[in-house]
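Structural prep section.
Before we set up the soaks we want a predicted structure of the protein with glutamic acid in place, mainly to decide which crystallisation condition to try first. Input record follows.
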Amino acid sequence: MIAMKIKTRFAPSPTGMMHIGGVRTALYACLVARKNGGMFSLRIEDTDRYRFVPEAQEDIIAGLKWLGLEFDGEPIIQSERKDLYQKYAKELVDKGLAYESDGAVWFKMPKEGEVRFKDLIGEREVVFNLADQKDFVLLKSDGFPTYHLAHVVDDHLMETNPVIRGDEWLPSIPKHILTFKAFDWEIPSYAHLPLIVGTDRAKLSKRHGAKSVGEFRKDGFLPEAILNYMALLGWTPPNDKEILSFEEMVKLFDLKDVHWAPAVFDVTKLEWMNGEYIRKSQNSNLKTQISNYLKDLSGGALEHPTEEEIEKVVPLVKERIKKLSDFVPLTDFLWEKPEYDQSQFKKLNIKNEKEVLEKVLEKLEEMEKPWDAKIFEETFRKLAEDLELSASQMFQLIRVSVSGQTVTPPLFESIQILGEEETKIRIRDAVEFVKNSPVA
Ligand code: GLU
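Run finished without errors. Recording the tokens verbatim:
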């Protein structure tokens, strides 16, 4: 027997921006196709004209591209195929298996017997009693098909096998199987993917931090991390590995290892994984990722930080950021003058800050350039001692003065990026600030 080429598809409804939950469906379908040298297509299910959102189609395509889930060929747009569905609906009417009523075409459900079905996920066997089923609409009065007709017609014509879709479609299986039979078409295999729920086990929503792909992108998540995390919602790789590249997933993925129990989406775990991806990224690669991210955010033009500046900072922040967006608050002070806040100085608990800062400035003036890390540290430890301050008070005072922040990348390295002159200017600015807003 000649093996059939594996064809899968992702068939989102453009009723809103591409949602994170859809990523898993698209990913699994893509993995199955790639693993088998098959084909992965995109089908836009836009036949529900009331819920149609015009920007959604573009957003879905952009989201898939950003994630690296490239589909083969051109997307199939259902609203452009109205005639086709009408032709097939008529065929069933002509066969006596469907009928027209109230301007719609209805499928005639047999009133007895059963439909047996075995899902690819967990080898679930489900038996549907036909006595519980009702006739259903194939073609609506506006001439557009329902999901049921469009699914059967399109997946037949596209030779989809297996059909990979969300669990919420499982109850519709008798409709689909009987429609395939009515046309005398071969019934594909189905994989109904487990529901994704939030950490409280309720249906996944915004409240769980589940947003659109575009929003995760804006928040500074990496596409590789999102794919990796979503892959594990319902699938356990055979080697129990947690960090997997797309290529590894292609190698290891198998629908038989997907569970049907609901999968829990935990945004803190996704953040953790994103941090792992940032840490294992090569510095030069991370530089490009951050640079592209910042350019994206600012709409193209970006004066600071330049790629060169980002490159210098990357090794300092790599261990400290979980998302690309964390780069901004942590490093902003390097390209922009700090805005001081009295409370940050107050927290240091130093009485005569102005005098201390003036002493700091004196020492900096005396220090030989380029400043040396070891000498810098020794000098200010000694100064702290002389002024009866702790070393941490001293270094924190310098930190707040040069950055306006209590948390920064390592102090000396930050100062090196700022440069000796700018550092001294900032200490002077801080002297002025504490003079004008005494901490008292
Ligand atoms: N448009 C359906 C949905 O978004 C697709 C289901 C399918 O993949 O067949 O749920």
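Observations: The mean pLDDT is 95.
Flagged for discussion at group meeting.
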